[in-house]
């Protein structure tokens, strides 16, 4: 293949911000973006882990880390400013930061309900509205919100998390309608059972029960979520907005 026909990397020359980017799905998304030619800014509460992750991705020339609590609007402003001031643009935002505080409704504390709703729902709202304000000026941009299969079907012990993840879907669609004529696309991903340190710590009985619900008979890998995020972040999905893509191996389709 001659140099003139070599395909350009999907995110060449673009800058992406990933919240919760220090580990797990967030880190893998950031890694796939760098591989696709992007520069990335990782936002995370754990700044040491985020800085280590940025180094692993290639250091300050391609990846930077910012301490960010997504519930705090000023923190999110600082995070996005690092992309604009440090790398020259904000082209992609992935709202991935999240936590779980599982308990049945009977035993869940009000604090654990509020915290999960706040981090997922308000955090995603903060990221979406602040990124959209920057992106609308340049008449382009892609926002990818990480929801969960739990937001589609509801999971026992997750009234807080299921509500927040379902809320992200509604927010994604509303924001997509508001931003479409500004050239900004907003889409969501709902991962199912994805192999990670967190899911592998699950009791064997719970793991087996979940596996039995998956037609493809295996858990997903973080890279299989990252590749879908890359698709939604890139021009390959240029006529898609307000969509929810399930990455679940067919579970609860």
Secondary structure blueprint with pairings:
Layout lengths: L14 E5 L4 H12 L3 E6 L2 H10 L6 E5 L5 H15 L4 E4 L14 H29 L2 E6 L3 H4 L5 H21 L4 E8 L5 H4 L3 H8 L10 H12 L10 E4 L6
Parallel strand pairs: 1-2, 1-4, 2-3, 4-5, 5-6, 6-7
Structure in words:
- The termini are far apart.
- The radius of gyration is 18 Å and the shape is globular.
- The model has no long low-confidence stretch (mean pLDDT 96).
- 45% of the residues lie in helices and 15% in strands.
- By secondary structure, it is α/β, with parallel strands linked by helices.
- It has a single domain, classed as Rossmann fold (3-Layer(aba) Sandwich).
- The protein has a 7-stranded parallel beta sheet with strand order 3-2-1-4-5-6-7, with helices on both faces.
The total strand number stands at: 7
Shape: globular
The major sheet is characterized as:
7 strands, parallel
Mean pLDDT: 96
Give the N-terminus to C-terminus distance in angstroms. 41 Å
Share of helix, binned: 40-55%
Quaternary structure of the protein: single chain
Order of helices and strands: EHEHEHEHEHHEHHHE
**How many helices?**
9
Strand order of the largest sheet: 3-2-1-4-5-6-7
């Amino acid at each position: 293949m001659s140099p003139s026909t070599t395909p350009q990397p999907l995110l060449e020359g673009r800058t992406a911000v990933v919240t919760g980017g220090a580990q797990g799905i967030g880190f893998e998304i950031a890694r796939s973006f760098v591989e696709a030619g992007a520069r990335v800014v990782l936002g995370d509460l754990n700044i040491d882990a985020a800085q280590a992750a940025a180094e692993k991705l290639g250091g300050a020339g391609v990846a930077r880390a910012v301490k960010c609590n997504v519930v705090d609007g000023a923190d999110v402003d600082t995070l996005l400013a690092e992309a604009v001031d440090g790398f020259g643009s904000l082209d992609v935002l992935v709202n991935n930061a999240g936590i779980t505080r599982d308990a049945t409704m009977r035993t869940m504390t009000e604090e654990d309900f509020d915290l999960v709703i706040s981090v997922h729902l308000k955090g995603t709202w903060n990221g979406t509205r602040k990124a959209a304000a920057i992106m609308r000026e340049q008449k382009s941009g892609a926002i990818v919100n990480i929801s969960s299969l739990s937001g589609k079907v509801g999971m026992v012990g997750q009234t807080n998390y299921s509500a927040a993840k379902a809320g992200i879907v509604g927010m994604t669609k509303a924001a997509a309608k508001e931003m479409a004529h500004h050239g900004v696309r907003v889409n969501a991903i709902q991962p199912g059972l994805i192999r990670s340190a967190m899911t592998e710590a699950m009791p064997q009985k719970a793991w087996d029960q979940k596996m039995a619900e998956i037609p493809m008979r295996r858990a997903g890998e973080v890279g299989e979520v990252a590749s879908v995020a890359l698709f939604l972040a890139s021009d390959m999905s240029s006529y898609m907005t307000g969509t929810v893509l399930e990455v679940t191996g067919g579970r609860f389709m």
